[in-house]
Every structure is written in structure tokens, then in C-alpha cells.
Design brief:
By secondary structure, the protein is an alpha/beta fold. It has 2 domains: 282 residues, Vaccinia Virus protein VP39 (Rossmann fold, 3-Layer(aba) Sandwich), CATH 3.40.50; 58 residues, Phenylalanyl-tRNA Synthetase, Chain B, domain 1 (2-Layer Sandwich), CATH 3.30.56.70. It contains 14 helices and 15 strands. A 7-stranded mixed sheet has the order 5-4-3-6-7-9-8, with helices on both faces. Strands 11-10-12 form a 3-stranded antiparallel sheet. It binds S-adenosylmethionine. S-adenosylmethionine binds next to α2.
Length: 399
């Protein structure tokens, strides 16, 4: 079945709600008024996710340009409908958008908002897993933006996604992915997290690794086009490929473990699914901590991000500046190894005050190392220099 219409919900009297108007991108929507953002609101809308939706519009547009054909998009957790409606009106080459939500009140508001914006979207009221199972191989883009963890929906996405499609995923359970709470991370993502200065990047890698391993059973593999962590959430854009041997190769090349020394900040990588434990730090002989299995391959695709930057709209300068800043940082991270050093933490271990980041980056580059900022932390440096060489470079800045 393709795009099941939702049942007529005569019992839901949406006129009983006092409404507020929201303008975002090229759309205006009406939603029930709210005092604070809450999953308990009659219809969920979070203004602080505007950046997430702005970047999604750019990323899906770039994907459509590369595909050179019309695309069908599934907004599986549509809420007010703002995301799907924006996709319909702001992304060129969109053939159909399906806006789905399990909440009947949300579905009524999606209908109203699509009419208000003259945006023809198909509307369904299904559990996201069931919708994915019913529509195998239908969508070019599947957007998963649930409350908290996307983990319960990845299996059905693996079943449903077709070769050459794009999977967009949001996770707001950052405390699990970043290792504040270890057990929920193991439960939801079957991976051991690591509470370090680069825990947000590590969280992105756990989420990507989990998706890659889940899709592998359907002989599907991923190519990360864009991944970032912002405020209270993580967001991934993954292109899907199909084939047993390519999936095997992708797991072999990209799944592994990160080892970390909390004493001297040394870290290393290991490919594979079986960590070798316990391990001693080769620099200071302390016991190494570890995280994984996770994605140790590329998270950013330079050309994809360049394309997104090129299509940034000219207007709305302030907003554009923030998006451009983030995209430039992410572009710089492509081709860089996993993890980063927090220069303040390194300098505190060295018992010196931290010199300007720019100077450290310049010194590392002069020594022939790659070095760039991390989008996750303002004081972070991504580099292929080992910790000893980084410490030497920091000392040199002062000499
Ligand atoms: C975080 S909100 C979505 C926000 C929306 N994507 C946006 O950008 O404004 C999550 C939505 O998922 C819906 N939802 C929760 N569980 C669901 C499920 N199993 N299937 C489909 N929708 C679900 C909720 O009703 C809620 O509207």
C-alpha cells in the first residue's frame, strides 16, 4: 500500500485549542499554544530545532541534486508538520512528501498546516515502524526525528531503505550516547560509551556504528555524508548502499574501538568487533579505557558539505552565519582521524595556560601534521599528531 490516508478523526476538536502562529523558513504554521517545550504538549514543536530543520533542507536538497531525479520523502515523526511542509516547499525536485505521526491531534494540525501553506503532503497516522514495513523500497529519503532515542526504529529502516536512499536521524538521548549513563547506551546502542572531552563525537560514532551494524543484516551499508552534534541533540545524514561484499568491507573498514588514557590523554583505534582487554597505555603505562563498537570511519563528506554551502540562501544573514560556521567546521573535519584533543585539558595536564588555538594549529601544520578545529568543542583540535607531538607543539608556541 502506498501513502495510506489517515482516518477522519471527528472526535478531535482542534478548535478547542488556543493557537499560536510560528514562522520558520518559508512556512507559517499554527500549533496549540505552549509555555515550555514538552513531549507532553498536545502537538510537539521545538523552536530550538530550527537549525536542525534548516540544515536538513540544505542536506536533502544536496542529495536530490546529486541524484538528479525527483525524490519521495518520508517525515515519519512529523509533529506539527513543520519539517515535512518545509521539505515540500523549500526543496526543489520533491515529488512527494509523506508526513506521519502517531498522535491524532498532531495529524489534525498537520492537515491544517499543509492547507494553510498550500503544501500538498500525504498524511498518515501510523506507528513509524509499521509505516516503514508497509512501504519497503518506496522512499528516497527517510527522516527519523523521534523523542529521545531513534534506536527502536533503525531495524525497520534497515528493512525499508532502498539502494541509493538517504537516512536522516536525530537522537536527543545525548546523556546515554555521551556516557553520562553507561547502561542505557549499552541497552539501546549495544556499545560501551566513553565520558571524555570528545564524548559528543564519540556519541555520533556510537550512533553511526549502531545503524551500520543494524543495516548490515539486510546487506545494506552506509556512507556518512554529514554528522554533527549541537546543543542537546545529534544528527546524521547517511547514504544507503546495498550488496553483501560491500557491506562486509564497510564493516571491516569502519567498525572498531577507541582506546583512551585518562592520565596522559593518549588514544588509539582498533578495527573489528572484539576489543583486546585489558590494555596498558604505551605512553604512561596506566590502564586504558575503551569505547565501542563504534564507527571509526569518515563522518563528514567534504564535497557534500561544499554543495550545501553553495546553496545557502543569501537572505537572513545572522541565521546564515551560524549555519555557515557549523558547515565550515564540519568540512574541515573531513579526512581527519577520530577524536580530538581539548587544548585546555592538555594544557592543564602540562600545568601551563592554554595558548590561542590558532597558534597551536599553525605550529602543528608547520610540522607537517593535519590540524583543524572540532565543531563539538571550541577548545578542541582534531589532528593526526600523537599526544606527545601535540604537547611539544604547545610548548613551542611559548618559546
Ligand atoms: C520530536 S517530535 C517530532 C518533531 C518534528 N519532526 C519537528 O521537526 O518539529 C516526535 C513526534 O513523534 C511522534 N511519535 C512518537 N512515537 C511515534 C511512533 N512510534 N510513530 C510515529 N510517530 C511517533 C510524537 O507524537 C511526536 O509528534
Amino acid at each position: 500500500m502506498f501513502f495510506v490516508k489517515y482516518p477522519i478523526l471527528k472526535s478531535i476538536k482542534i478548535f478547542l485549542y488556543s493557537n499560536m502562529r510560528v514562522n520558520e523558513g518559508r512556512v507559517t504554521i499554527k500549533i496549540p499554544s505552549f509555555d515550555k517545550v514538552s513531549s507532553k504538549a498536545p502537538v510537539f514543536y521545538n523552536p530550538s530545532m530550527e537549525l536542525n530543520r534548516d540544515i536538513s533542507v540544505l542536506a536533502i536538497q544536496q542529495f536530490q541534486k546529486e541524484k538528479k531525479s525527483k525524490i519521495k520523502i518520508a517525515d515519519l515523526f512529523a509533529g506539527s508538520g513543520i519539517r515535512g511542509i518545509r521539505y515540500r516547499l523549500e526543496i526543489e525536485g520533491t515529488e512527494r512528501v509523506l508526513a506521519n505521526d502517531i498522535n491524532p491531534i498532531a495529524v489534525e494540525f498537520i492537515k491544517r498546516n499543509s492547507e494553510l501553506n498550500k503544501a500538498p503532503v500525504d498524511i498518515t497516522m501510523e506507528d513509524a515502524n509499521i509505516l516503514l514495513r508497509k512501504n519497503r523500497g518506496v522512499f528516497d529519503v527517510v527522516d527519523i526525528d523521534p523523542f529521545g532515542t531513534p534506536s527502536p526504529f533503525i531495524e525497520s529502516a534497515g528493512y525499508s531503505l532502498k539502494d541509493g536512499s538517504l537516512l536522516c536521524v536525530t537522537a536527543t538521548d545525548t546523556s546515554s550516547l555521551c556516557g553520562t549513563y553507561k547502561k542505557p547506551c549499552i541497552r539501546k546502542y549495544n556499545a560501551v560509551p566513553l565520558k571524555t572531552e570528545y564524548c559528543h563525537e564519540n556519541g555520533l560514532r556510537i550512533l553511526t556504528g549502531f545503524i551500520s551494524l543494524t543495516l548490515a543484516k539486510y546487506k545494506k551499508y552506509i556512507k556518512a555524508r554529514l554528522a554533527y552534534s549541537s546543543q542537546h541533540y545529534m544528527r546524521l545524514y547517511l547514504e544507503i548502499g546495498k550488496g553483501a561484499s560491500k557491506t562486509d568491507k564497510s564493516l571491516k573498514d569502519n567498525i572498531g574501538f577507541i582506546y583512551h588514557c585518562h592520565n596522559c590523554l593518549f588514544r588509539s583505534l582498533e578495527h573489528g568487533l572484539l576489543p583486546i582487554l585489558p590494555r596498558e597505555c604505551p605512553q604512561c603505562s596506566e590502564k586504558l579505557d575503551f569505547s565501542g563498537p563504534l564507527w571509526i570511519g569518515e563522518l563528514e563528506d567534504e564535497n557534500f558539505i561544499k554543495g550545501m554551502i553553495r546553496s545557502l540562501p543569501e537572505k537572513k544573514l545572522n541565521k546564515k552565519r551560524n549555519i555557515l560556521k557549523l558547515l565550515k567546521l564540519l568540512k574541515g573535519e573531513s579526512g581527519m582521524p577520530p577524536t580530538f584533543y581539548d587544548t585546555h585539558k592538555v594544557c592543564s595536564k602540562m600545568r601551563i595556560s592554554a595558548p590561542p588555538l590558532k597558534k597551536i594549529i599553525k605550529t602543528l601544520q608547520e610540522k607537517g601534521f593535519k590540524a583543524t578545529r572540532s565543531h563539538c568543542k571550541a577548545t578542541g583540535i582534531k589532528t593526526n599528531a600523537p599526544i606527545i607531538r601535540l604537547k611539544e607543539s604547545i610548548k613551542e608556541v611559548y618559546s
